[in-house]
Specification:
Blueprint (H helix, E strand, L loop, with lengths): L7 E7 L5 E6 L14 H13 L6 E7 L7
Antiparallel strand pairs: 1-2, 1-3
């Protein structure tokens, strides 16, 4: 797999009986910015909530991987 661009999100959903999935999501805003009323974080948070569902049996972790520069 080619190296991912930054920032990217990693979502891991784990359910009962060793079921689950792992997703890596790269979201890029368009030239004019994000869709009206949305943010990259809001999109992945909504996906996280969708995976959690109503059963209470699914645990979901969301990790943001980014590079930051700090002037010394």
């Amino acid at each position: 797999m080619p190296e991912l661009s930054y920032p990217h999100y990693r979502i891991q959903a784990d359910g009962p009986n060793e079921t689950g999935c792992v997703m890596t999501v790269v979201i890029s805003d368009g030239v004019g910015g994000p869709l009206p009323g949305t943010t990259s974080r809001g999109v992945v948070e909504a996906l996280k909530e969708q995976l959690v569902g109503d059963s209470g049996e699914v645990s979901v972790s969301l990790v943001l991987n980014e590079i930051r520069a700090t002037e010394l």
